[in-house]
Every structure is written in structure tokens, then in C-alpha cells.
């Protein structure tokens, strides 16, 4: 993943993005579709057409994602940064959260082709899984 910060601080966030961030502090839907859930894992799919985005969500569980397709994305992070990244097909990243740690962000496809990820969350992490609106 090749990523760079394109803006620091909240000043670059449109009002509608700030309002959505405030409204989704506890959104545990980390993908566009929940593919599978067992007592141990949740498997998510994220599929975004060019210009589409998945809104703000909170990561509290250990997880990994794999980029199924190459692409480019923009993300607003809870610390105010706006980050743009390029992904390669097959690229995988792992994340671990200690008790009470988390990450809140969104993801927008800024490329010219569909962007597709698979994300796997581990339900036996240090933090309790967030409830999902079904």
C-alpha cells in the first residue's frame, strides 16, 4: 500500500462528512456486506464502484484486510487526517487493538475501477465486538 496524507486537521472536511463522523461513532459495520459470521470471526466484503464510499465505522477488533482488486482510495481518519492510498491485488494488512483502542474512518473509491476488499475480524479480541444493526 502506498499511502500519503493529503490534509491534516478537520479544516478540509466538508460539513456533511463531519456530521456523518459524529453520528457514526459506534458503527461496527466495517464492510458493505457481512458474508459470514461464526463464534470466532466476521468476514466482510467491501465493494465500491468509482466514486462510492463506505461511511464512517469503528474498528475495535483485531482484523486483517486483503485487496482483491487494485485501486485507489481516500479515507478520513478520526484524528482529522485525509489519507489517499493505492492498493495492489493480493495486498494484505493486519491490525491489533489493545483494550479500549480503536480506529474510526471512512473509505471512498477515488480510482476508475471497482475497489474490492475482504476483511476478517476476530471476535475473541481484547475488545468486545460492537453490535451490528441487522
UniProtKB/TrEMBL annotation:
InterPro entries the UniProt entry points to: RmlC-like_jellyroll, RmlC_Cupin_sf
SUPFAM superfamilies: RmlC-like cupins
Record's protein name: Cupin domain-containing protein
Amino acid at each position: 500500500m502506498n499511502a500519503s496524507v493529503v490534509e491534516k486537521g478537520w479544516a478540509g472536511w466538508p460539513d456533511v462528512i463531519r456530521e456523518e463522523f459524529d453520528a457514526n461513532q459506534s458503527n461496527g459495520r466495517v464492510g458493505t456486506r457481512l458474508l459470514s459470521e461464526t463464534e470466532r470471526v466476521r468476514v466482510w466484503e467491501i465493494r465500491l464502484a468509482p466514486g462510492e464510499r463506505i461511511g464512517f465505522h469503528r474498528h475495535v477488533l483485531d482484523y486483517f484486510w486483503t485487496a482483491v482488486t487494485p485501486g485507489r482510495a481516500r479515507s478520513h481518519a478520526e484524528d482529522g487526517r485525509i489519507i489517499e492510498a493505492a492498493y495492489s491485488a493480493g495486498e494484505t494488512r493486519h491490525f491489533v487493538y489493545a483494550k479500549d483502542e480503536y480506529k474510526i474512518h471512512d473509505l471512498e473509491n477515488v480510482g476508475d475501477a471497482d475497489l474490492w476488499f475482504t476483511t476478517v475480524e476476530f471476535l475473541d479480541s481484547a475488545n468486545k465486538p460492537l453490535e451490528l444493526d441487522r
